[in-house]
Amino acid sequence: MSVRIRFDGDEIAGRDGQTIAGVLLGAGRRSWRSAAGAERGVFCGIGVCQDCVVTVNGIENVRACQRTAHEGDIVEREAR
Ligand code: FES
To answer: What is the pLDDT of residues 2-48, one digit of tens each?
Structure first.
């Protein structure tokens, strides 16, 4: 099964059960947030550092490395 999410206006396909970070990385995205002028993506990958946070379906501060991607999720960048 596949799952499709939207990020930066693009539809991105991943595999069912992948995290949002997994879907983004699988699509070649390496960063999806900026902080203090630097691009951020996955750092720890285990839910500790919060470098990977995104807004998902309007909910802020979702850790992309912990949240399973669901069909139709709308993922937005956060900058702070
Ligand atoms: S990469 Fe560290 S919390 Fe997600």
So the answer is: 999 999 889 999 999 999 999 999 999 999 999 888 999 999 999 99
Identify the structural domains of the chain with CATH numbers, from first to last. Answer: 2-79 (3.10.20.440)
Pocket test for ligand 1, best of 18, 33, 44, 67 (most atoms within 8 A of CB): 44
**Which 3 state secondary structure label does DSSP give 50?**
coil
DSSP string, 17-47: T-BHHHHHHHTT----EEETTEEE--SSSSS
Contact assessment for residue 21 and residue 43, using Cβ atoms and an 8 Å cutoff: no
